Amino acid sequence: MPPIADITIDPSLRTRLQQGHPWVYRNHLIGAERLHSGQWVRARCGGLTVYGLYDAHSPIALRIYSRNGPPDQAWIRERVWEAWELRASLRDNGQTTAYRWIYGEGDNLPGIVVDRYGDYAVIQTYAESVQTIVPTVTAALRAVDPQIRGVVQR
């Protein structure tokens, strides 16, 4: 993982962030002007520290992924595994071969959705910054379910 940049979040958001809100809008960031899309950042808001991906072009300038340290490949793989386990009843009921495997913020992977259609996974991103983790998510999908015949990005 490349070096993590440090920025500050407006202190008025502390309570919202402590409650788990996954986004920070551009006007609440201090010191982000030098950053580029897809860069991992450590953002401080009072005594709270969060880690996320910065987006230079979206009103949602920071998508928060972790509050416990910078996400790495193992962390992302664990989120993919947790989403896989959470959807076991859909996957194993024999009534469908299509379902949403990863549902962005709901699975702690903001800005990314993965749908499963038979033996294929389809990745869709909702922010330029999220492109940074698409290769890692793709590898995690294949590691969690070796039955996948293909992963495509929409």
Automatic annotation (TrEMBL):
Keywords on record: Methyltransferase, Transferase
Domain RlmI-like PUA, first and last residues per copy: 7-67
InterPro entries registered for this protein in UniProt: PUA_sf, RlmI-like_PUA, SAM-dependent_MTases_sf
Domain of life: Bacteria
Matches recorded under Gene3D superfamilies: PUA domain, RNA methyltransferase domain (HRMD) like
Keyword Repressor: no
A GO MF term: RNA binding
Entry's Gene Ontology BP terms: methylation
UniProt-recorded name of the protein: Class I SAM-dependent rRNA methyltransferase
Species, as recorded: Chloroflexus aggregans
